[in-house]
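Notebook p. 47: complex prediction with adenosine-5'-triphosphate.
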Amino acid sequence: DAVDVLLSVDGLSAGYGEMPVLNGVSLEIRRAEIVALVGSNGAGKTTLLRALSRVLACTGTISFMGHNLVPLTPDQVFGAGLVQVPEGRQLFDRMTVEDNLLMGAYRRADKAAITGDLERMYALFPRLGERKRQLAGSMSGGEQQMCAMARGLMAKPQLLMIDEMSLGLAPVVVEQLMEVLARIRDEGVTVLLVEQDIHLALSGADRGYVMETGSIVHGGEAKALIDDPAVRKAYLGL
Ligand code: ATP
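Predicted complex, structure tokens below:
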């Protein structure tokens, strides 16, 4: 159903200097779904996120809620509701958890709603509520990932793109984070989950795309991808 398409990418190419990395990537993300973008190390996943966020030059089409993102600046893209949670969290280490969350809302003027949204984040991530006065840099890896995700949500995104959410985290923590993603999806936030851990990402997603050397090589319902013999053989070691 075309009205449900939130992001539509067509023929997107990008690279670094003379080196091409993305070769005509096309994909579609619909409202209130979790989409996994998976592929091995160096496939170009982070490069695709950088092109979508408009920090990297690209050719092709990026249509987000009917608007062309290609001519926009990164700040304008953020303002349009396409928000990235970067690989490695990139928190403000010397600021408190709460001040990090407030940084996510820096473009918003609705003070009362911001205060309400802080409380929503503490309900979603109780650990952050317990530690809101703690410096972000002194938190555990899992807590820092929660803080980075909550900071992104404080921007009130239409689409939250999360790069390597699970990296370096214990399985029990990753499981909690996946549950949070399902909750925010059910509340209407669309999620693009970029992961090297293909099984993990497809297990928690509605749909998925598999990327290899700068191109999408498989796409579809996440369950169908996990069951696809070609995907199982090439990526899941089965
Ligand atoms: P990973 O999960 O390891 O980050 P990835 O799928 O996200 O992998 P990218 O980080 O997008 O892959 O990298 C794709 C290719 O682009 C790699 O060959 C990488 O070496 C190259 N690359 C990434 N960043 C730069 C850069 N700043 N300058 C030059 N080449 C780069």
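Notes: The pocket of adenosine-5'-triphosphate is lined by residues 16, 21, 39, 41-47, 196 (CB under 6 Å). The two ends are 34 Å apart (CA to CA).
Next step: compare against the earlier run before touching the bench.
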